[in-house]
Every structure is written in C-alpha cells, then in structure tokens.
Amino acid sequence: MKGIPRPFRPRKFIHYQTQILLILVCAISLIFFYQSLNYYFFQDDWFVLNWVRTGDFASLFRFRTDIIYWRPLSMPVFFFLNYKLFGLNPSGYHFIIIIFHLVNSVLVYHLFRTLKFTQFVSSILSLMYATASFHFVSLSWLSTTSYVIGPTFIFATIILFLKNRNLFALFAFLLAVSSSELAFTVIPIALILKKISRATFKQLLPYIVIAFIYLVARFSISRPPVTGEYALSLDFQIFRTFFWYFVWFFNIPEAFSTILFFNQLKSSVVALLPFSRYIVLPAILVTIFILAFFYTRQNFRVFIKGVSLFIAGLMPVIFFPKHVYPMYLVITSLGILYIIGSILQRIRNKLLIFTFAILWIVSSFLTISFYRNSHWIKNEQAISKAYVDFMKVHFANPSSNSVFIFKSANIKFAQRYNFVLVETEDTLKQSLNDQDAIEVIYNDSTLRSFYVNNDNSASLLNNGAEIYEVHPREN
Fold first, then answer.
1. Half-sphere exposure of 173 (CA within 13 A, CB side)
2. Does residue 405 sit in the same domain as residue 328?
3. Total structural domains within the chain
4. Do 284 and 194 reside in the same domain of the chain?
5. 142 located within any domain
6. What share of the chain is helix, strand, coil (3-state, %, to 5)?
7. Can you give the pLDDT of all 475 residues of the chain as single tens digits?
8. Parent domain of 73
9. Are 194 and 300 in the same domain?
10. Between the chain's N and C termini, which has fewer beta carbons within 10 Å?
11. Could you list the residue ranges that cross the membrane (predicted)?
12. Cα(96)–Cα(229) distance, rounded to whole angstroms?
C-alpha cells in the first residue's frame, strides 16, 4: 500500500525558505517601528552632537568624567559618522539604527539555529524579538543606540563562540565592549550555553582578562554614581525587579510599573482598569507560557537554563532597583525565548503556534501604539523639533556670544506641534539639553541659553550681549 503523498512544495521555495521567513520577520518589524524614523533629536542627543561636531575623532574614544558610560562605537562614533552623512537630519540616523535592529533579529534566528532549534521555531523566536515592544525606546531615542548596536556584536560573539570561531568571536567581543556594558553578559551566557569544562574556561580566559582591564580602567578614571537612581540594593526589591522585566517581555506597558504596587493591590487594580485593553493579551500570553511549560513536560534543565540566561542578561543592572527599564531586555530576553523555543519544539500543531504568534503580534502592536500616544519620548522630541524650527525661521544668523532666552509656548502653538509643556517642570530645558541644541544648530560654542522658569535672566539685559527671545506663539 502506497503511503500518503506529501504536500507539493516548489523546490525554489524550500531552497529560499529561510530567507523568505526572515524577510517576513523584518517586514513586520518595519511596520511596527517605521514611525520612529520621524523622531527628532532631544535631550542627550544634543550633548553627543555637540561633542562630535568639533571633529576631534580621538576624543570619541577617551574616558570622560562628566558621563557615566564609555560606549565609543555606539554613541560618539555612531553620531560622528551619521553627522558626516546626514547632518542634522535624524531620519538617516534612525534608518541606520533600524537596520541594526533587523540584523539583530536575524542574528537571534541564527543563534537559536546554532542551539539546534528547528528552522520554524527559530523563525518564531526571531519574530518575537523583532516585534517586542521593549525596543520602542531604543529605536525612538538616538541616545539609546547602545541597546541596538551593542546586541549586534553581543549576539555575533555568542554565535561565533559556540561555533568555536575563537578569533572572530574575540574581535566581535571587543566591538561589543566598545558599544555597551551589556557586553560582559557574554561571559556567563557562554558558560550557560556551552558545556562547563576546563576547555570552556580556557576559551573564555581572554574575555575575562578584557573585562578585568576594562573595569580597572573605568573605576580608576571615575567611579560611577551609586546614589539616587543608581543606588545599589541587595534586598527583596530584586524580586519586584525580576517581575517587571518578566511581564515587560510579554508587552505590558512600562508605565504600569508606576501604577501597580503590591502593598496597595486593590487601589492599583482600580487604577489599571481603564487600561485593561493593554493588559488582557499580555496576561493571556503569560498564562499560555506557564500552562504550555507544564503541558509539554519540559525538562527541569530547560527551566534552569532559561532562568539562568534571564538572570545573566540582567547582571549589569539587576542591583539597581530604581534604574529599571524595558530596554534592558535586549539581551536578557534570550532566557525567556529559550524556554518558549523549548516549548514550541514539543508542540506539533503548527496552528497553535501560529495562534500564539498572532496573539504576540497584536499584543506588541497595541503596546507600541500606546507608547506612540503617551510616552514622554514623543512629547520631548516634539518640543525639541518645534523650538528648533522656530529658531531657524526667526533667528537665522545670531552673532557670537548671543544669549537665547527661552519661554513657554502658548497653548495654540503647543497644540499645533502636538506637545505639552508643564510650567513646574524643566521639560523644555531637558528637551534642548540646556544650550547644547543652539550650539549645534548654529555651530557656535559661544552661544548661551536661559530659561525663564529656571534662571534669572534680568541681569543679562545690561551685559552687552545680543539677546534673542524664543517665545513661540500663535494667535
């Protein structure tokens, strides 16, 4: 008796199946994040632009005492090269960053293929990474490019390390270290993914030496702050931190962490009710994740490995409970993706997997849409663009040593440019990063700025400086 014939699939499709799946993943990701191409410079963007416009390339690689990070490749070098290519057109910068993000999504696919996951499952995991809402900030705010460029070299390092391409892996690691502090998660992640043995430790020795040299150099020049937002904590707050990173992965909006308090659960639930549309699907996804884990009878080692990867990815930030943001999931998400991939490997019904993928896509899309309408990033970039456009029109060529006095725009102007200014806050000053914006726009380091809500500008009227009043308004 003849067997049942397999469904016909063209050979060309089979040959290019991987490429087609990855193109589809990238296309969906572009649909989700393309609006970020239009976001303007604001806050620290102006600081870095002011840094790189001087043309001092060597300074881009020096440790600085006025900033807490050393990310030459992903911050000053990135801005320097894009400044040469695109000038002050932020769309070009964002386009390059989105390309890096798409490369990361492809690398996630290849990482899980390297870990022996199937092509189909690896594609689903790549899709989840490519469309995750935790990428919103890093794809919308250019000053957070390290959370996109860094993972490119981190993923490349891990893949090459697992394939024993040691020289290339070490080179990728050096690029990762020059891009993000998260690069040091490579060491524990490599230990978790590769069999722990003397050979593995020997293979990791150069990475450990590089990490040691970096830390000694970093702390010798200036110690990072350990107060305020960067205050260290080893208490039970760490479990709350783990909770929020876990639910943020499943597309719970970031702002909900400021609404939900476990010691005030009843009032928190009441406050969250108006936002239920953004909670239902993530809650369903978490429930499916937990039930499917037990239903598929996963090996306990899978759980331990996934949790270990999750913790390893958070090691650089986990002890800062006041410095908690979804963008740190760019590496630690590998732990949850590993567990999900192990679950999907045991589910034979592809319809169920597609259903899960669709729920994920809809959930992520809703959360990203929520961010587009309510996130402070949207407001501050709009403020920055409106004021810069106003200055370009009204003050074309200010003389050296001029003073710009900034005042709050009237309501009609703010409505036209879709932003909100609160008089009791320093939003305008933050958006323009004090005087960095005007120094960049006019390419003049002698210009100064004052904000009437923050500084006493009356004394400037008699010092001989040319004064420009920046007070946007419409009738």
1. 27
2. no
3. 2
4. yes
5. yes
6. 70, 5, 30
7. 455 555 555 555 555 788 888 999 999 999 999 999 999 999 999 999 999 998 888 888 887 777 778 889 999 999 999 999 999 999 999 999 999 999 999 999 999 999 999 999 999 999 999 999 999 999 999 999 999 999 999 999 999 999 999 999 999 999 999 999 999 999 999 999 998 888 888 999 999 999 999 988 877 776 666 666 666 667 677 888 899 999 999 999 998 888 877 777 777 777 777 888 899 999 999 999 999 988 888 788 899 999 999 999 998 888 877 778 999 999 999 999 999 999 999 988 888 899 999 999 999 999 999 999 999 999 999 999 999 999 999 998 999 999 999 999 999 999 999 999 887 778 999 999 999 999 999 999 999 999 986 444 545 555 667 899 999 988 7
8. 17-374
9. yes
10. N
11. 20-42, 92-112, 119-138, 144-162, 169-192, 204-221, 242-263, 275-295, 302-319, 325-344, 351-371
12. 30
Cβ neighbours of residue 412 closer than 8 Å, sequence gap 6 or more: 473, 474, 475
Instruction: Please state, in angstroms and rounded to a whole number, the distance separating the CA atoms of residues 410 and 117.
Output: 57
Cα–Cα nearest to 30, from 98, 90, 79: 98
The answer to whether position 2 is within a domain reads no
Look at residues 201, 185, 100 and name the one whose alpha carbon lies nearest to residue 149.
100
Residue 75 CA to residue 71 CA, distance in Å, equals: 6
Torsion (CA) 250, 151, 190, 177 in degrees, nearest 10: -140
- Here the tokens at position 33 are 């994040």
- The tokens describing 251, both together, are 């597309």
Sort 52 into a burial class: Cβ within 10 Å, 0-12 / 13-18 / 19+: buried
- Of 349, 374, 399, which residue sits at a domain end? 374
What single string gives the DSSP state of each residue in 173-190? HHHHHTT-GGGGGHHHHH
Backbone angles phi, psi at 406, to 5 degrees: -95, 135
Report the side by side order of strands in the sheet with 467-470. Answer: 448-451, 403-406, 467-470
| 3 state DSSP class of 426 | coil
Boundary (domain end) residue, out of 374, 403, 433: 374
Same domain, 236 and 385: no
Q: Say yes or no: 23 and 144 in one domain.
A: yes
The verdict on 166 and 301 lying in the same domain is yes
Identify whether 128 is part of a domain.
Answer: yes
Distance between CA 43 and CA 142 in Å, rounded? Answer: 10
Exposure string of 14-37, with b = 16+ CB inside 10 Å and e = fewer, is: eeeebeebbeebbebbeebbeebb
Q: Are 109 and 85 in contact (CB under 8 A)?
A: no
C-alpha 359/C-alpha 372 separation (Å) is 20
Query: Is 43:433 a contact under the CB 8 Å cutoff?
Result: yes
Clarify whether residues 454 and 395 are in a common domain: yes
pTM: 0.91
Torsions phi, psi for 404 (to 5 deg) = -105, 125
